[in-house]
Request: fold
Amino acid sequence: MDKKNLFHKFVAFTTAVHEVTHELTKDVKPEDITPVQYSILEYIAVSQPVTLSQISDCKHISMPNTSRELKKLAEKQLCEKFEVTEDRRKQLIRLSEAGQAMMDRAFGQIENQFRTRIKDASDEELKEIERALEVLHTKVFYEE
Reply:
């Protein structure tokens, strides 16, 4: 196995993932939130509950900027902070009911676009795609 060639394919793949992600999400963001705010909400939706530092780290946003954006999202009643009963110093963030509803609508639109992209794939190809995603998730995109 040529690992250098494999790495170049991985780089091309991750670039394509970013491009496709942009294509799938560019028209689903409500107009009253910024792209950064949408990105934060999307991360919370998939990973909740999360900490401020997890959002900051994953989204490559400074802690003060992350805090400011979360405050704006909380003011729009799209997310909320809550304390951990075991450690009252620790605060977690989750989507509010309105935030969850908004992200459910966004993910519904994204799912429709995804289905359009795979509409011509055979059952066998769909199984291969599913298997490839499982392998990538467990071997490449796992958290350490």
Summary: The chain has a mean pLDDT of 92. Helices lie at 3-25, 35-47, 52-59, 63-75, 97-117, 123-139. DSSP finds six helices and two strands in the chain.
